[in-house]
Every structure is written in C-alpha cells, then in structure tokens.
Design brief:
With 342 residues, the protein is of the alpha/beta class. 39% of the residues lie in helices and 18% in strands.
C-alpha cells in the first residue's frame, strides 16, 4: 500500500519522531511505501511530495521541527482545494493518509474522511488543547523550556527587585502557562480560560511585596484576555483558519503593573523558543508511540480515527471526538497552582 503523511499547523517537537516511527514500522514491518507531502495540506493540494524510506528517516528521533515542512493552508478555503487533495492522492496511488496536526489540520482530515478519503489523525500541539487525548507530544518539551526560563528569570528578578512577566504560547488554553507556572513557582498565572482583572493582579503583587518579597514572577499565556472594560489589547492579522496572530499581552501586563504599582517590570516573550529544538525524552517516547499506533490503524484499515493517549495506553477514537471541542485547562489544576499566588 502507498500511504501519505503530512504535518500541518505550527511545528512541534516530536513531529520527526512520529514520521520516523510511521516509516520504520510501515516499511520495515508491513512493507508499505510512505510518501510525505511537503508543507502540510499545501503539498497535498499541489502534489508536492517526497518518498520517505527507512534510509532517509535515519537520525530523525531527536530532531526538532518537521522534515516535511508545515503550513496553515486550509484546502477548504481555496477554490476546489479539497478536490485537488483527492486528485493528488489518486495520481500518487496513495490509498491512505496520516495527518499530523492540531484542531485545524485534523479538522480538514475529518472533513476529507467524511468525503471518502481514508484518513488517520495524530494529535499534535504544544498547547495540549486537543480533546480526546490526555496529552499531545510537544507539550512536555514546551513546559520544560518555559520552566527553565522561569528558573533563570528568578535570579535576575531577585537581584534587581523586579517583576518579571513571562509570556508563553497558549492561544485558547493555558496548559503551558499553568504547568510551567506551577513548576517554576510563579506568583501569578494568567490563562485564556479566566479573563483577568489587572488591578487584582497588582493587588496580589502589592500584598506579596508587603510580606517581604522583593520580586515577582507573572506567567501570562499569549491568549490571556483582560476582563471586559479593565485593559485594552491590540489585535493582529488573521490566518486561513481565522486565528488572530497573538503576542503582546505580556507587554501590556508589564506596562500596567509598572504604572499601577510602581514596581519595575520587564517582559520576556518566549514564543517560538518553546516550539523549537529537540524534544524531551518523554515527548520522543510518546511521539514514537503515536506514530506506531497510527501506522497500525492504517494497516488495519481503521480509518476516520485519531490516535489518543489515555493514561498509559494509545487508543483510537473517532476523529470527530478529537476535534469536536477544545480541551481547556482543568480548573482543578489552576486551583492547585493558585495556592502559591501573591
Ligand atoms: O501551534 C500552536 C501555536 O504554537 C500557538 O500556541 C500559537 O498561538 C501559534 O501556534 C503561533 O503560530 P505561528 O507560528 O503561526 O505564529
């Protein structure tokens, strides 16, 4: 069988480990041929592909990014895009497609599946906001990098009596902010799920400093939003899936803290640093297992499914379930982290 594979959306540490696992088991154990589409759905629309073999996926396990490249192309946004994907698969003799991506990429896979394409999805996002799976690969790496940064910021914050605002990724969900904030001992964590009142943030910091602390760490998810009428934010460009380009809330939070409390504040926007570089050992392991389960699903003809991690098991669930709702931050987790605020 010829099997296609593509990586869509933002890149994520562990993508190459998934590709390697699919090829190693697909070719090595099942005797299939694997073809990679370059640049996410763009490659499937345009027929831009590369043959993947055991030979050319060697050395991929620790490598960040994706050798296939990625994009936020949405075939359903261009005239006849979905038909072009089907034409490409037909002319390449590809009978099944493994799509590795987040809500947008897998949303396209789900639609194509309903139109008769044999698809299997692998959930990918550092944001960890896909429902149906306990964790996505890449999240652990992002949390590790953010935590190391927060640790480093502690000592410089302490030396200068400053408030350090750390902005991390997390468009709709505050998983990275909450996990790294808890692991790094943040004094306030702002997440998209809970609109914040900047004055309350300042009050907490004021209280902490009156108790004797000379510095504070505030972790802000990029998608955190102020409660209505409390603080203005700028908005940016919109992509093909309708997402606004974020980045900027950290700066606004720091400005307000400085002007309202008089404490000197600095901002560090971690942004794409969280997505780059080598995956942690844990992410290499789960990415590999996601890939192995995906190729098993294809080999079994079990289509329209997304591979999911449940506890320590890798299972297959309907793609519909995986992309139906976003998995926002568990309030119990936030409550645990907030014990250490202020
Ligand atoms: O992949 C998810 C994500 O990392 C979000 O956390 C972030 O908002 C977005 O991607 C950034 O996308 P881009 O790299 O296209 O700016």
């Amino acid at each position: 069988m010829r099997i296609g594979i593509l990586t869509g959306g933002g890149d994520c540490p562990g993508l190459n480990a998934v590709i390697r696992a699919v090829v190693r088991k697909g070719e090595g154990q099942y005797g299939h041929n694997i073809v990679g589409y370059r640049g996410g759905w763009r490659g499937a629309v345009e027929g831009d592909s590369v043959d993947l073999t055991i030979g050319n996926v060697r050395g991929l396990l620790p490598r960040g990014g994706t050798i296939l490249g990625t994009s936020r192309t949405n075939p359903y946004k261009s005239e006849g895009g979905a038909e072009k994907v089907k034409d490409t698969l037909r002319s390449d003799n590809v009978t099944a497609l493994i799509a590795i991506g987040g809500e947008d990429t897998l949303g396209v896979a789900q639609k194509l599946g309903k139109e008769g394409v044999n698809v299997v999805g692998v959930p990918k996002t550092i944001d960890n906001d896909l429902s149906g799976t306990d964790f996505t690969f890449g999240f652990h790496t992002a949390v590790q990098i953010a935590t190391e940064a927060i640790d480093r910021l502690h000592t410089t914050a302490e030396s200068h009596d400053r408030v350090m605002v750390v902005e991390v990724m997390g468009r709709h969900a505050g998983w990275i902010a909450a996990y790294s904030g808890l692991a790094g001992g943040a004094d306030v964590i702002l997440v998209p799920e809970l609109p914040f009142d900047i004055q309350e943030v300042c009050n907490r910091l004021g209280h902490r400093h009156r108790q004797g602390a000379n510095f504070s760490i505030v972790v802000v998810a990029e998608g955190a939003t102020p409660a209505a009428g409390t603080m203005e934010l700028q908005t940016g460009e919109v992509d093909e899936f309708g997402h606004v380009r974020l980045g900027g809330v950290g700066n606004r939070v720091a400005e307000e803290i400085e002007s309202r409390t008089g404490f000197e504040a600095r901002v560090t926007v971690l942004g794409h640093v969280l997505r780059g570089g080598t995956p942690t050992a844990y992410d290499r392991v789960i990415a590999t297992r996601f890939g192995l389960e995906a190729i098993d699903a294809v080999n079994d003809g079990d289509f329209g499914k997304m591979v999911a991690l449940r506890g320590t098991d890798f299972v297959r669930i309907p793609l519909d379930e995986g992309v139906s709702t976003l998995k926002t931050l568990d309030p119990k987790f936030y409550e645990a982290a907030s014990v250490f605020f202020g």
